[in-house]
Amino acid sequence: MCVWWRQGQENAVDAGAERFSVRDGTLSIASVRESDAGTYFCNASNSEGSEVLELTLQVWAPLSVHVLPPRQTVDVGKSADLACQVAGFPRHQVSWLKDGRLIRGLAGPDDGAVGGDPGGRVRLLAADRLHIAAVTKEDRGMYQCLVRNDHDMAQGAAELRLGDAAPTLQYKFIEQTMQPGPSVSLKCSATGNPTPHMSWKLDGFPLPPNDRVMIGQYVTLYGDVVSHVNISNVKAEDGGEYECEAESRAGLAKHQARLNIYGPPFVRAMPDIIAVAGKVLHIKCPVAGYPIESVVWEKDGVVLPNIMRQRVSGNTLTIENVQHASDQGTYACTARAKHAHAAKRTVAVKVLGESPASLTSLTSLTRQGSRLPLFIGRISWEE
């Protein structure tokens, strides 16, 4: 005779119970469940004596894993949560990976920050729940939850995307003053999502063609853009206000600083300017050379400002409430240095009236959202 009982239970296994049966000393369990796992004892006895047989039943089911949500878009600075949903058993080990690499040093729900994460920014709320606080660009990618036991292994994956983030300049070049001859490099780096496009200007215009000027840029692994302007054998006429501009659909960031090269005054050629009547017009004199004692604006031989609507600040002439009759014409800016050195350039200003016909002629020059090409001129006004 054989009597079966289970470790931890006082009574023998009921051979007539649901799913359990004993026949000829054999214990049968139908529709095995995870809860049936454990140690079982068979006490076999006859007239000669008795003997106890110990058996261990291990129950497992194939593992399957899903990470939820399977795809999410999170703005930089916000938090993200990933849940590992597991079917099957047992679950001996749960690991988290990012882009195929194990995420090391994860802080648990009751742990402090570990693994080089001083803010505990990436941590486990539970073994199957990953929390990322203050998401950065480095956090985007594919996350995997890997579950294994002695018999099986399975994984699920989810993608973390970044929402739009306006460009920000991480590195900006500074104002420099130098002698002519050596080389100089101006550098800007920007971050943002999507990766911003970087461009350069000199005194408000794209850099003029020059064999001594080279513009280069590259994008880092994390999508930051690094751009630089290298100028070899710098000359006085290379001086001016340089500007780097990072732009994407999420916004724009820019920075300006002067490069001063010792030498006589030099004024770069200016394209014709188109102004709109009633608006404010800014005209900047693109001065190079250093040091510059003064910049003087004139119109028709008369030094400006000569009316209340005009003012000169540095090398910029501002005209408020532009008038067709009095403000259209040719302007001249003269840059002077010591020892009677001077340089002069003129620029033509055309004033468009506010009539629909005039504005139509303006829009015909350029596609909506684009800038006027330099050979046509530029528009500079504000409300």
Automatic annotation (TrEMBL):
Q: For this UniProt entry, what is the primary localization, expressed as one broad class?
A: membrane
> Mind telling me which GO cellular component terms the entry cites?
axon; plasma membrane
Q: Which UniProt keywords apply?
A: Cell adhesion, Disulfide bond, Immunoglobulin domain, Membrane, Repeat, Signal, Transmembrane, Transmembrane helix
Keyword Transferase applies: no
Q: Name one Pfam family in it.
A: I-set
Q: Which GO terms describe its biological process?
A: axon guidance; dendrite self-avoidance; homophilic cell adhesion via plasma membrane adhesion molecules
Instruction: Indicate where this protein resides in the cell.
Output: Membrane
- What SUPFAM superfamilies does this protein map onto? Immunoglobulin (SSF48726)
Give the membrane topology, semicolon-separated if more than one: Single-pass membrane protein
Q: Which CDD domains match?
A: Ig, IgI_4_Dscam
Which residues does the UniProt record annotate as the domain Ig-like? Answer: 1-58, 62-161, 167-260, 264-348
The keyword Chloroplast appears for this protein: no
Q: Where do transmembrane segments lie in this chain? A: none
Any one Gene Ontology MF annotation carried by this entry is: cell-cell adhesion mediator activity
What InterPro entries would the database entry show? Ig-like_dom (IPR007110), Ig-like_dom_sf (IPR036179), Ig-like_fold (IPR013783), Ig_I-set (IPR013098), Ig_sub (IPR003599), Ig_sub2 (IPR003598)
Protein name (Swiss-Prot/TrEMBL): Down syndrome cell adhesion molecule-like protein Dscam2
Origin species: Frankliniella fusca
Q: What is the lineage of its organism?
A: Eukaryota, Metazoa, Ecdysozoa, Arthropoda, Hexapoda
